[in-house]
Specification:
Low-confidence stretches: none
Distance between the termini: 53 Å
Shape: globular
CATH topology of the largest domain: pyruvate-formate lyase- activating enzyme
Mean pLDDT: 96
Helix content: 25-40%
Strand order of the largest sheet: 2-1-3-4-5-6
CATH architecture of the largest domain: Alpha-Beta Horseshoe
Largest sheet: 6 strands, parallel
Number of domains: 3
Structural class: alpha/beta
Oligomer: single chain
Radius of gyration: 22 Å
């Protein structure tokens, strides 16, 4: 008898890649993989615990599946991922409905864990974090035309607000030859867009090669037939070298898009965050990027209400956002995470003030992005087709300036033609709907 296994993966794309590797391990051990976790014998929740809302989402998902278990619809419930790794034995104490709680270092033995759990054995297993395998097969869970390539695990930056180093351990780069091999396999399976991810992609290679190797990796990936777009996420500003800028500018396959998680612009606050930079230094970097890589799309994220953020420092951030005019941006209120240095700082900001400040920055950015959409009217844009919107009765897709899941879409009509999902088409922008351009296929 083949047991059915389903998985719910929460949080970031890095977690999604981990889930894809779990699925491959289970498939190789003769489990039947089901898309609907409610139809499984064993349900796995691959949790997130980055900030408080992510933890709440993970707990809510566990409780929903626990109801199905109580109703006899699933036989056992396994929890892995960041929540399990961070809180370890506390998880099963607080949520006794769980049958197994395992750390990320136990992912490689998931088949054996599920077998024992189905036989009635409760398990809590937390090997060292570095036991987590970085190499292995995957079952792609994204649409066929794009996939994530996780180039490293863990983080050495130790930003004072962040729990990732505690959860995921030290930064561990994968070898270039292994990444190229995996990228070729993805391209052979139909992937046209490859998205490079890590907690800090710009740090890639320092641990195993003794120097930054992201430019070298990108050049090797650009040689792969079948890939059309290569996108880079999570580059720290202080590690944006001239070499990296030159590679992004000169390689045709690398989309002119860069994600710079800046978090703030005030020098004093950044120092307390254990981040580098200042208003003028960051502005200078962005001006250089825009000069050296014409029409680059820049994305960033910011935190409001970090401990000690004064009204003047917040106003400086507001001015920065208004002056720089990022093409894409997210803003989040500071989340006080226990056991991080920032959680112990004095001058913690009131929740309402944190939220209000985040709303102000988000509203500023909304207007900036709406103007970008208006300014695109008349442009002819290459669009990667994502699907058909039944309610809007038109197709939608993404430009090179739009990353899946975090950015917007371009909506377009196609007349009598039915463009295939995963294909590239030319669209003339004729209007805009909020931040989303609207057009017609040429």
């Amino acid at each position: 008898m083949k047991y059915k296994v389903g998985i719910v993966s929460l949080g970031c794309a890095k977690n999604q890649v981990d889930a894809e590797m779990l699925l491959a391990k289970l498939n190789n051990e003769q489990f039947e993989i089901v898309e609907d976790v409610a139809m499984s014998d064993a349900a796995i929740v691959n949790t997130c615990a980055f900030i408080e809302p992510a933890k709440q989402e993970s707990i809510e998902e566990i409780l929903e599946l626990a109801k199905l278990k109580a109703e006899g619809k699933i036989k056992c419930l396994i929890v892995t991922g960041c929540l399990a790794e961070r809180y370890q034995k506390d998880v099963m104490k607080q949520l006794p409905e769980i049958d197994a709680c395992i750390g990320i270092g136990a992912n490689d033995t998931i088949a054996d864990i599920i077998t024992k759990t189905l036989q009635g054995e409760k398990q809590e297993i937390f090997p060292p974090k570095n036991c987590m395998q970085l190499e292995g097969e995957r079952i792609q869970s994204t649409p066929r035309h794009y996939a994530y390539l996780k180039i490293a695990e863990g983080c050495d930056n130790h930003c004072t607000y962040c729990a990732i180093p505690m959860i995921r351990g030290k930064y561990r780069s994968r070898k270039i030859e292994n990444l190229v091999k995996e990228a070729k396999w993805l391209a052979e399976g139909g992937v046209r867009e490859l998205i490079l991810i890590a907690q800090d992609t710009s740090y890639y290679g320092n641990d195993i090669y003794g120097k930054p190797m992201l430019p070298k990796l990108l050049k090797e990936l650009c040689k792969i037939e079948g890939l059309k777009w290569i996108r880079v996420l999570y580059c720290y500003p202080e590690r944006i070298t001239d070499e990296l800028i030159d590679v992004i500018a000169s390689e045709e396959k690398i989309v002119k898009y860069l994600d710079l998680p800046l978090q703030h612009c005030n020098k004093d606050l950044l120092k307390v965050m254990n981040r580098k930079g200042s208003y003028d230094e960051l502005k200078s970097l962005i001006n250089k990027l825009r000069e050296r890589i014409p029409k680059i799309t820049l994305r960033s994220t910011f935190i409001t209400g970090f401990p000690g953020e004064s009204e003047e420092q917040f106003e400086e951030l507001s001015k920065f956002v208004d002056e720089i005019k990022f093409n894409r941006m997210g803003c989040f209120p500071y989340s006080r995470e226990e056991d991080t240095p920032a959680a112990k700082l004095p001058d913690q900001i009131d929740e309402d003030i944190k939220l209000k400040r985040a709303e102000i920055i988000s509203e500023q950015q909304q207007l900036i992005m709406e103007q970008y959409a208006l300014d695109s009217i008349g442009d002819e844009v290459e669009v990667l087709v994502e699907g058909f919107d039944r309610y809007a009765e038109c197709y939608f897709g993404r430009s090179a300036g739009d990353c899946p899941e975090v950015d917007g879409n371009i909506f377009f009509t196609a007349g009598d033609i039915k463009p295939v999902v995963g294909s590239f088409v030319k669209v003339k922008i004729t209007d805009s709907l909020g931040i989303d351009p609207v057009g017609e296929m040429i």
